Model the fold of this input.
Amino acid sequence: MKAVYPIVITPPKKEGEFYLIYIPDFDTNTEGTSLGDALYMARDAIGLLGICLEDEGKEIPAPSTYKPQAADNELVALVDVDFTAYREKEDNKAVRKNCTIPAWLNRRAEAQHVNFSATLQQALLAIVGK
Done:
């Protein structure tokens, strides 16, 4: 499911402070170190809250309005979220894979206490990216 949610961003008052993000439809806040990070954090918070609601058997709230109340110093932005893609990205459940390697390589790797699962994961990440 894809949706677009409004957020309200309050810029930092001083250097080194964070952008505060309010997500009205989820009645929650998050923060970011920059405007780009604020948008990323808002998308992450919405995605996480959405899949948590689904896991609890609850409905993900639909966007109530695209023009939430904002003070003069605040920004209103829209954040798109693909809940299906977010769930897939966050699914860290381990899956068993069977692979075959030459016996000599197995002996050497075991002698060096190589963690086969970690090595395979690292190699796959290098190929497919994060």
The radius of gyration is 21 Å. The chain has a mean pLDDT of 92. The first strand starts at residue 2 and ends at 10.
